[in-house]
């Protein structure tokens, strides 16, 4: 009797679940593609110098084409090393990345940089700030995926602010789980702006949303 033994599934380096249907890690290699298939992804957000393309990575690109995975690329330099490493991403990019993360229509979503370390951790840290996590908890999670957290990293997260545009009918259930109604409007650093289609809110233009 011949038994068919399935090939082992290998997740990307530093792979982890951030929230339901939201994953993080390093750049997927060929060996990781069977694992990615099990996630039933809708979106891959790449924080890398170059986008995933037929020329740069034909196997990963073909996987995305075959399984209707949307590829989203933000041009980001390589993360630095040492105590004085720079922050190679800006606030406007993070705000745009969060727009994908906090809308359920893009999930399941895989977020990655080259090595799954500093750059991905900065984006997740800003997401945690949006979720009202304390600084201590945010930075404890940060160092789980990096060798250290620098003064520049801390300053970037602590200074993160801006407008978050959200369709309240499409937000994931985990975003502010456990918080009372209207908590988003009280965020000390981020302004949550309703950006629903006008037909779903015919009496007013975009404005502060109380979720």
What does this entry look like structurally?
The chain has 211 residues and is α/β, with parallel strands linked by helices. It has a domain at 16-161: Protein tyrosine phosphatase superfamily (Protein-Tyrosine Phosphatase, Chain A), CATH 3.90.190. It has 6 helices and 7 strands; from the N terminus they run E-E-H-E-H-E-H-E-H-H-H-E-E. It has helices at residues 33-38, 58-66, 91-101, 118-130, 135-142, 151-159; strands at 16-19, 22-25, 43-48, 70-75, 109-112, 162-166, 190-194. A 5-stranded mixed β-sheet has the order 1-2-5-3-4, with helices on one face. A two-stranded parallel ribbon has the order 6-7. Helix 2 (58-66) links the parallel strand 3 (43-48) and strand 4. Helix 4 (118-130) runs antiparallel to helix 5. The radius of gyration is 18 Å and the shape is globular. The relative contact order is 0.14. Mean pLDDT is 89; it is low at 199-211.
Query: Helix/strand/pairing class, anyone?
Result: alpha/beta
* H-E string: EEHEHEHEHHHEE
Number of helices: 6
Radius of gyration: 18 Å
Query: Judging by the overall fold, what is the CATH architecture of one domain?
Result: Alpha-Beta Complex
CATH superfamily of one domain: Protein tyrosine phosphatase superfamily
- The first-level CATH class name of one domain: Alpha Beta
Q: Sum up the overall morphology in one term.
A: globular
Poorly predicted runs are 199-211
Organism: Scheffersomyces spartinae
Pfam families: Y_phosphatase2
InterPro entries: Prot-tyrosine_phosphatase-like, Siw14-like
Protein name: Protein-tyrosine-phosphatase
């Amino acid at each position: 009797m011949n038994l068919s033994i399935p090939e082992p599934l290998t997740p990307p380096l530093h792979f982890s679940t951030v929230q339901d249907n939201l994953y993080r890690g390093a750049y997927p290699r060929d060996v990781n593609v069977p694992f990615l298939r099990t996630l039933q992804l809708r979106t891959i957000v790449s924080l890398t110098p170059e986008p995933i393309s037929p020329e740069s990575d034909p196997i990963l690109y073909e996987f995305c084409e075959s399984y209707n995975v949307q590829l989203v690329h933000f041009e980001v330099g390589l993360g630095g090393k040492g105590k004085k490493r720079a922050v190679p991403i800006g606030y406007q990019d993070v705000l745009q990345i969060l727009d994908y993360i906090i809308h359920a229509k893009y999930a399941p979503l895989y977020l990655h940089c080259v090595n799954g370390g500093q750059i991905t951790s900065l984006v997740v840290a800003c997401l945690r700030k949006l979720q009202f996590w304390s600084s201590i908890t945010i930075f404890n999670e940060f160092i789980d995926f990096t060798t250290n957290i620098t003064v520049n990293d801390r300053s970037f997260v602590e200074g993160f602010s801006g407008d978050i545009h959200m369709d309240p009918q499409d937000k994931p259930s985990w975003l502010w789980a456990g918080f009372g109604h209207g908590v988003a409007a009280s965020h000390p650093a981020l302004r949550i702006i309703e950006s629903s289609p006008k037909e779903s809110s015919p009496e007013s233009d975009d404005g502060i949303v109380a979720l």
